[in-house]
Design brief:
This protein has 89 residues and is mainly alpha-helical. It has a single domain, classed as Up-down Bundle (F1FO ATP Synthase). The protein is 88% helix and 0% strand. Helix 2 runs antiparallel to helix 3. It is rod-shaped, with a radius of gyration of 23 Å.
Amino acid sequence: MLDVAGILAQAAPDPSKGLGIGGAAIGMGLAVIGAGRGIGQIGGQAVEGIARQPEAAGRISTNMLIAAALVEGVAFAAVVFALVLALKL
């Protein structure tokens, strides 16, 4: 005999998992938006600083790249943590 209730019970997704994955997706999106905004501000301020003081372009560019790498690293870590949380649920 076909056990329809048993098949449906196995196929039914856990509703709390969807909320966790949705929360992780929102967290990843916010991390990426924050990183984009931060890198945009770093780049804009660096261009402005180079325009005001062209002789310091080398130092400004170096510091800009270091700051952008740090911002990108934090965003990458946030995305990885959100993925780990989404996959653990």
